[in-house]
Write a structure and sequence with these properties.
Protein name: Diguanylate cyclase
Helix content: 40-55%
Largest sheet: 8 strands, mixed, barrel
Radius of gyration: 18 Å
Organism: Marinobacter nauticus
Structural class: alpha/beta
CATH architecture: Alpha-Beta Barrel
CATH superfamily: EAL domain
Number of domains: 1
Shape: globular
Strand order of the largest sheet: 1-2-3-4-5-6-7-8
Bound molecules: guanosine-5'-monophosphate, sodium ion, manganese (II) ion
Length: about 250
Amino acid sequence: LTLVSELRHAIDNNKLALYLQPKLSLKSRQIVGYEALIRWPDREQPVTPDQLIALAEQSGLIKPLTRWVLQEALHLRSRLLELGFDAGIAVNISPNNLREPDFAVFVQRLMQSFHAHMGAITFEVTETSMMQDPVNSLKALNALNAAGIPLSIDDFGSGYSSLSYIKQLPASEIKIDRSLITELSHREEDRVIVRTTIDMCHSLGYTVVAEGVEDEETLALLEDMGCDLIQGYILTRPLPFDGLVDWMSGQP
Ligand code: G
Ligand code: G
Ligand code: NA
Ligand code: MN
């Protein structure tokens, strides 16, 4: 059995898992959302999420994979709502998904079937991936935004940032790449870049998220810089659903 056929089987038979990592508001100190991250559990030969996504993109399985991810994300969101945890889930989207002619229609129908309102699902896309096909990506993201999907720009500051392009996107949130965050407390240059990025993004009307926050010192610096939301191991690693519910139950 090839790895591709195993992946196809895993998608069709619900063998993949979505882990969730919370996002904390530095103002309200509440969990205001979760990022969904794919996992392939119970394998003798572990496959990392990066390998899994690369394999799905090469083999054409990214289309059924993303559809499974979206359905599962909406399912997990309903289960969280039932438990009293009301927050949207962010899903990572590949540029290839935006090339599917029926993607926006699929997403709209799925949202309707779950009675999901605007913001139940957010899409995260990287600036670098958009640049492969900027015109069509913009069209697709506008259609999705009209269908109730807010957009977040992932890994901001890690690639070739083209703000002149990004400002045309229907994005409401910018996530500063973790390479600029992990050593924030040791590197003056990173503090200059992050502080300036936060100010600029605020002036442009974006909510700013810092990802990869691992310690209290970094959290305090980001709070001082006016960063809106944080994500990272300081809160928790991405957790399977039951683990997340336990973790949430321990939050103030
Ligand atoms: O969980 P981890 O940090 O190892 O994820 C590795 C990479 O895989 C990240 O860049 C993340 O954006 C990507 N990734 C995780 N889950 C998904 C998914 O459901 N779809 C896509 N397209 N990428 C994902
Ligand atoms: O590319 P994207 O930003 O979607 O990648 C998210 C990845 O970052 C996931 O693989 C997740 O496991 C990882 N991650 C989340 N929080 C932290 C953190 O605090 N430190 C590090 N090193 N990685 C993190
Ligand atoms: Na992401
Ligand atoms: Mn990221």
